[in-house]
Amino acid sequence: MPEPESGLRDRLVAVGVDLLAREGTQKISLREIARRAGVSHGAPRRYFPTHQALLAAIAREGYSELGRRIGPLAADDGADPRERLHELGRQYLDFARTHRGMFELMFRHDLLRGNQIGLRQDSLEVFGILVQLVERAAPQRPATVVAGALWAGLHGIAQLGHWGSLQVATHTEDLDPLLRTAIDAHLEN
Amino acid sequence: MPEPESGLRDRLVAVGVDLLAREGTQKISLREIARRAGVSHGAPRRYFPTHQALLAAIAREGYSELGRRIGPLAADDGADPRERLHELGRQYLDFARTHRGMFELMFRHDLLRGNQIGLRQDSLEVFGILVQLVERAAPQRPATVVAGALWAGLHGIAQLGHWGSLQVATHTEDLDPLLRTAIDAHLEN
DNA sequence: GCGTGGTGTAGACAGTGTCTACGCGGTGTG
DNA sequence: CACACCGCGTAGACACTGTCTACACCACGC
Lengths: 189, 189
Known about the structure:
2 copies of one chain form a homodimer. By secondary structure, the first copy, chain A, is mainly alpha-helical. Chain A is about 65% helix and about 0% strand. Chain A is built from 9 helices and no strands. In chain A, helix 3 (about 50-70) packs across helix 5, helix 6 crosses helix 7 (about 145-160) and helix 7 runs antiparallel to helix 9. The interface of A and B includes residues 127, 149, 151 and 160 of A. Chain A binds a DNA duplex through helix 2.
């Protein structure tokens, strides 16, 4: 339940996030969100021109949460950068596992056609942290390319792993060996 | 237009594939497919208990097409297995680029809950080819794990790359450098 | 010749996203 | 003070969706 003291806009987003986490992707229809927020189905239109715009706003909350998780890992204390990357990967996979609906929503292609600016920029912020860590862990390699390939690997592990396709590779639910393999591969040379 | 001499079942699938390629993901509703096949909206129900079942059948055509593309690469003539892997990667990315709707459909999570057997097995067939090539290219490493990580990387590049998120890493539409980085990383050591 | 079953039609139903017209309560201005 | 305005939300319509059910039609076997 969202706190009652806020504008309807924020309440709709909060209800959407909650509903998405609790009941899954197919429940977050415009009308259902409005219903749970206690308003009529036309009300959201004051703040979001379309259903997709509301979904995009909900997805941004996901990026924000993800950034909150892995942001601190960019801090430049003395910790081993490679271990940091491992931790980032674990956080990424854990987020995808515990927030499946949100994770799916965050990378829905159709959400971005109308919302090029917001969502893509949010994801770039996350990507920036990855680049920083790669720069420190493997200074001799082109950081952005390696970080890109690494992110792709991470994302693929999350996507395919929680789908069940990779169980034949790992013979277990645990994706950590794959994560380790991917990170080691990209940092080795 | 599909050939007229076939059962309705096959025609529905063919129309769906065509419609998906031509007009995108949101156009392949049950009723629209039925309309384009020239039958009433209730007809598909004779062959597919639900809309998702029809979509799953359409997705299987995608796996079949993908297998047709990369299947020949498993042939054991004298070609360099690493170059073979490159070619496989290019085919994978090209397929994802030229069949975006289909690619998206093939990995939709909600399609698999009701169709655990079919779709997942199709994807495993593709995975098997990858494992064979990895075995030949890097015999000293655990093939299934490396192949899994590699597939994840490939898939992530396709997913994120065609989304635009990775343009900051490559500064171009060309995903080949990323592909090369990923393959080299996983085979090196 | 007559049931019978496979095949497709057609209508109903609840639900969806979008659009439009309408209220209602406050704020400011003449 | 009266009045117009305006932000905010309501309510109904519309076309569309997926699913369910009852109903024709037509070929086939008894």
